[in-house]
Amino acid sequence: MATKKYSSYAQIDADLEILKLEKEIHYQKMILSLQKTKEILTPNAIVGNIISSTNSILSSPYGVMIKMAVPFILNKAIPFITKWFSKTKRGN
Q1: CA 44 to chain centre
Q2: From which domain of life does this come (predicted)?
Q3: Which of 69, 72, 68, 65 is nearest to 80 (CA)?
C-alpha cells in the first residue's frame, strides 16, 4: 500500500472518520453474521434444512429412483444388520 500524503488536518480527520465508519460497518456485519449462525444452528432450523434438502432431492429427476431404492435397501439392510448384531452378541 502506498503511503498517503496529507496537506491538511482536515484530510486526516476525513480519512479517520471514514475508517471509523468502515470499522463500525464491519463490526455490525460480524454481529449480524453471528446472529444468523446462531439461528441456523437451532434444532428447528437444522431439521427444517434437512427436510427441505430431502424434498429438493426427491423432486429431482432422480427422486423417483431414490424413492424406490430406499425401501428396497432398508428391507435388505435391516435384517442383515440385526443378524450381524445377534451373531456378535453371542460371540460367534
Answers
A1: 14
A2: Bacteria
A3: 72
Q: Report pTM.
A: 0.49
Contact indicator for 23, 29 with CB cutoff of 8 Å = no
Query: All 3 cell numbers of residue 46?
Result: 437444522
Distances (CA, A) of 6 to 10, 14, 83: 9, 11, 81
Q: Hunting for cell 465508519 — which residue is that?
A: 21
Closest listed residue to residue 70, CA positions, set 82, 57, 83: 57
Q: Which residue has the cell 429427476?
A: 61
